[in-house]
Amino acid sequence: MQNNKVKTRVLIAEEDDDWRELLLFALADEGYAVRGVKGFSAAWRLLQNWPCQIVLCADCLGGLDGLSCLKIIKERFPNIYCVALLSCISENAIQKKLPDYLAGAAYKPFDLDALQRLLRSLLQPRCAFLQRWAFRWGHFKNWLYGRWRRWYLSRASKQREACLRLFFEHIRSGRLLLGGALAAWDGLEELENVRNKAWNGGADCWGLADGYRCLGDFITFSALSSHWYCSNKRSLSAVNYRVFADFFAKVRRGELSLEQFSLAPSLRQGQNLSSELKRLFQQIWGEESPGDTPWSLARQTLENGTGVWQSRSLKIKKLTVSS
Q1: How far apart are CA 119 and CA 112, in angstroms?
Q2: 3-state SS assignment for residue 81
Q3: Stronger pLDDT, 138 or 317, i.e. the higher one
């Protein structure tokens, strides 16, 4: 720990309590004198009476634009280093060029080691040209990764559409039986869960497109198979067997279109659906509503002794649904 850290004051303006407490703890442990506020007005009042060297500000403060707030601070206190705390990489958050009034930027979820290196570089500046070049290069790498991530997710979306179209056509034609469809749907829901997390920046999207392509091959193979075994080790978060059988029958009879079939997995993953989406959910999935969690349905299945969970092994052979 260096002596200049003891006198270095850092102000953290972050409305999220968890992120603010994390930064306060991490920087205080490094020897910085830190204070945290929740809004811009509180930060502005504190700066009048507590001059600091560095200001860390989130990109959103109670509905205000954090970058605009940092610009105001930099104009009033030109000697302060302004660092932006940006949310997950997105088209709006990442630009090729950051404003000149910013000394740096950190991205959530934070790499605390990288953030501390950034603060040390501000307090012990190297050659101005090399420092600016290193910052721009790191920012460009983040921007490039965000572009690649969006391109790969769009590629995975095309594979998803092809997989769902193949799934729908095999059910409508009668080649895919209920057992194979149920096994394929379980795999589809796992991919949908990863896809939703990847769009929100919370999961690695690598391999998602290959996953949908492999699922399409599995569906084709299932359509050519004469029988299927349904495992008793299905996840409790998987779709209820009875509910899926009703959904399967609707698709087989032609009561659901390809567009509705494509929306079915997304609706099961959704939270806090609007009234219109709830009606669509009711139309597609029947008695199951968005408020009924898969866990509660699975628990009811176990208690009532019905469904695939109550048997040690369930063989499904040439199951058909009457039209």
Answers
A1: 11
A2: strand
A3: 138
